[in-house]
Every structure is written in C-alpha cells, then in structure tokens.
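User: Hi! I have a protein structure encoded as tokens and I'd like to know what sequence might fold into it. I'm fairly new to this, so please keep things simple.
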C-alpha cells in the first residue's frame, strides 16, 4: 500500500516515543545555535573583519536561507524527513568549523552561507516527522499541541543554555577575548572559537541521533528526475495553499508579524542596553543575560500553550491571547526609549518577558492549526512557507526600523503589527478547523522506544 509522497505503509511509532524523540531533536539542533549567539560577531571582529564585512556575512546567511527555504521543504516532502535533517546537521558542522578556524573573509562568508543552507534544510522536517508519526498512530484528529509545545519549550531552553555557555566559555577558560590559545594552531584558534568548536561536536551528535532515532516508513524508490519534478510541484502546491485556505493565510500573516516584532527587538535592544549600562562591553554582558531570560520566558510560554488553549476555548482564541500579550510587552520596551535609570530597567525587563512569553505560547497553537489544514505530502513545505514569511518580514521590518531611528516610533510599529495579527483571529471560527480532506494518512514505522 502506498500513500502520498511515495510513503509505503509500515509499523507505527508510539506517540510518547515520537514526542520524546522530537523534543530531543529540537534541543540537539538549537543548542549549537545558542552557543554562537554571544561570540560570533566578536569572533569575526577579532579576525580583523570590519562591521560592513560582518553585515555582509549575515546577509549571506539570510539570502541563502531565503532562497533555499521552499525547495528544501519540498525536498523533505519528496525524499523524507530524516535525510534532509541529517544533511542540515552536516552543513552546520562544516559551517561552525569554518567560522571557528577561518581567517579570510571569503571562508567566513562561506561558513555563514552553509549555516543558512542548514537552517533552510532544518525548518520543518523534524516537526513534520512528529506530526506524521502521531497522526499515523492516532489518526488525523490526534492531539498535537502538547508535543509541539514541548518541542518549542525544548528549543527555547536549548537556546538559553547555549547562550549562557557560549558567553561564559572563554571566561571559564581564563582567556581574554584578544588572547590566542598557546598551541600549534595559535594563528587559527581564538578563545572565542571554543563555543563554535563545541557546537560542531553537538551538531555531529544531532546528526547521529537523527539517523538512528527518527525512523521513517520506507518510501518508493526516487530517481533524480523524479525529485526534480516532484520538488517544484510540492513547492507550488504549498504556495497555492495560502491562497485557498483562510486559516493558512492567518497563520502566515501572524508569522510575518512575529518576524517584524523580533527584528525590531533584536535590532534596537542591544544598543539601548549598552546606553543604559554606559559601555558596549557591559551592554554585551547584560544583553546576553537578557537574551537568556527571553528564551526562558519563551520556553515557559510554549509549555503553557496547551492550558492557554483549554482556558481560551480553542486554538484560535489562544493565538489571539498570546499575540495580544506579546504586543502589550512591546509597549514598555518603547517607553524605555524615553526614560532612563531604574524605571527603564524595570520596564525593559517586564516588556521583554511579556513579549517572549506571548510568542512562546502563540507558536504551538498556530502550528497545530496549520498542521490540521495540510496533509503529510506537503507538511514540510507549508512549514517552509511559514519560515520564509518570518524571515522576509524580519528583513523588511529591519530596514524600515533602521530608517526610523531609536525613538518610540519603531516600537509602536512593531506593536501595531502584532495587534493587527491578533485581530485576525477575532474572526476565526469558534472551534478548531478540522483537517482538510486528503488521502488516508500513511502508517509510519513503529520502532522500539
């Protein structure tokens, strides 16, 4: 018996085992990313790169991820989730190694481009694998929100832990940012390289775990011409989905609003913190701690997503409440642009916490709605479309915010985006939308827990 996407029926995975493996996969993938948050820019500058070159490196990452986002989502739907995730791990391992050891601009840019390709490959397959496994075991009406919430919590917790380790590791080694490690590789290895080298090890562990734990049903043999035909078809179907489904459009617009809010926060907060502390060095340290706290609030929000949906009465209402909470959090951040001293610190901490708490609660609820509107054969593509909406909105909003200056106006713009997205869900149905009609959900492999 075959199913859409070339999947052949097979034994099923226990839902609890699937959820555990999905959570572990999220944590192992995002922990290395967290390790790079604090040291990456400083590492580039220690290599002698100008800020314009550093901006170009990040542009290489963003453009690569944006260009490959939809094709890689389609590839996952055609050839399988596990192979694409493993490829993402190998690309990230190469990227971290290049960034840690390279001294030339072209090699550092290549490392960032490889990281962008890994990001594109990873956006969707793990979540699609989890949803496929649970629906194959329990049917299309299976409860998804709890597993998605735990995956989101694991992602945020891994980023928080990675940020702490990545910022503290050079200090724990008792090495200053400008000192070289006394070894034969002193021209290549800086103290700030250590978090990225550790990230390479974790990424290789992630790749091994994916290959051994995320078992999939066998698929019909796929030839290169078949892949070349199947991927564009799947991508086109994913793009058409937003035009046909009001629910999917709302998810995409909400995701775009979230991208704009995050871009505003990430662009303006570091400079504001440095101004409040009085020095860039102390501002970096405080911003690292603030980022860790934000990820912790996001993890808490993801954990609270299922009870929020139960109390609100539906997934749609839960998204509305969560986005409204995040929008309220942006207002105190905007006020800090006009005040200083203890009130600014108190308002900033409150706003940052509310923003990430709300965004953490919104993600699992809106993604469950998305999964109920798509079928297995296009699930990873739909997630890639969602990721693309986040990235493009963040890029456009970042350019706009940069032109508006550092006053309250950019924060008001971001608040308006989130409030508009929340209002979209006021018109949502009173109950969750049932799954779209599709071919029978394929059975997946049942492996030992």
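Assistant: Happy to help. Inverse folding works backwards from shape to sequence: for each of the 449 positions I chose a residue that suits the local structure. Here it is:
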């Amino acid at each position: 018996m075959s199913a859409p996407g070339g999947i052949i029926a097979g034994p099923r995975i226990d839902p609890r085992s699937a959820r555990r493996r999905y959570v572990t996969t999220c944590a192992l993938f995002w922990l290395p990313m967290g390790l790079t948050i604090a040291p990456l820019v400083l590492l580039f500058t220690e290599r002698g790169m100008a800020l314009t070159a550093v901006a170009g490196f990040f542009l290489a990452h963003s453009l690569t991820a944006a260009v490959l986002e939809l094709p890689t989502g389609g590839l996952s739907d055609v050839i399988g989730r596990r192979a694409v995730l493993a490829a993402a791990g190998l690309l990230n391992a190469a990227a971290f190694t290049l960034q840690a050891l390279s001294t030339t601009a072209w090699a550092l840019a290549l490392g960032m481009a490889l990281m962008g390709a890994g990001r594109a490959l990873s956006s969707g397959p793990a979540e699609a694998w989890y949803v496929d496994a649970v629906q194959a075991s329990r049917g299309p009406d299976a409860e998804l929100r709890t597993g998605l919430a735990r995956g989101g919590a694991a992602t945020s917790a891994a980023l928080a832990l990675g940020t702490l380790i990545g910022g503290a590791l050079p200090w724990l080694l008792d090495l200053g940012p400008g000192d070289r490690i006394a070894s034969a590789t002193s021209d290549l290895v800086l103290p700030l390289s250590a978090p990225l080298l550790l990230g390479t090890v974790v990424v290789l562990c992630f790749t091994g775990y994916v290959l051994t734990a995320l078992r999939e049903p066998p698929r019909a043999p796929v030839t290169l011409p078949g892949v070349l035909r199947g991927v564009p078809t799947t991508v086109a179907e994913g793009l058409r989905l937003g035009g046909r489904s009001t629910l999917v459009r709302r998810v995409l617009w909400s995701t775009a609003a979230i991208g704009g809010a995050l871009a505003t926060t990430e662009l303006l907060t570091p400079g504001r913190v440095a101004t409040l502390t009085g020095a860039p060095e102390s501002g970096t340290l405080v911003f690292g701690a603030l980022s860790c706290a934000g990820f912790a609030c996001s993890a808490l929000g993801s954990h609270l997503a299922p009870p929020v949906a139960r109390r609100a009465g539906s997934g749609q209402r839960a998204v509305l409440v969560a986005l409204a909470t995040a929008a309220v959090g942006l207002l105190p951040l905007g006020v800090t642009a006009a005040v200083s001293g203890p009130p600014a610190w108190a308002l900033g901490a409150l706003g940052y916490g509310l923003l990430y708490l709300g965004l953490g609660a919104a993600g699992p609820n809106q993604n469950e709605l998305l999964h109920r509107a798509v079928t297995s054969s296009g699930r990873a593509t739909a997630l890639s479309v969602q990721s693309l909406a986040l990235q493009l909105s963040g890029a456009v909003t970042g350019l706009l915010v940069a032109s508006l200056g550092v006053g309250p106006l950019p924060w008001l713009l971001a608040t308006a985006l989130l409030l508009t997205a929340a209002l979209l869900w006021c018109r949502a149905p009173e109950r969750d939308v049932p799954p779209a009609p599709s071919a029978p959900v394929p059975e997946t492999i049942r492996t030992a827990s």
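A useful reference point when you look it over: The chain has one domain: 2-427. Feel free to ask if any position seems puzzling.
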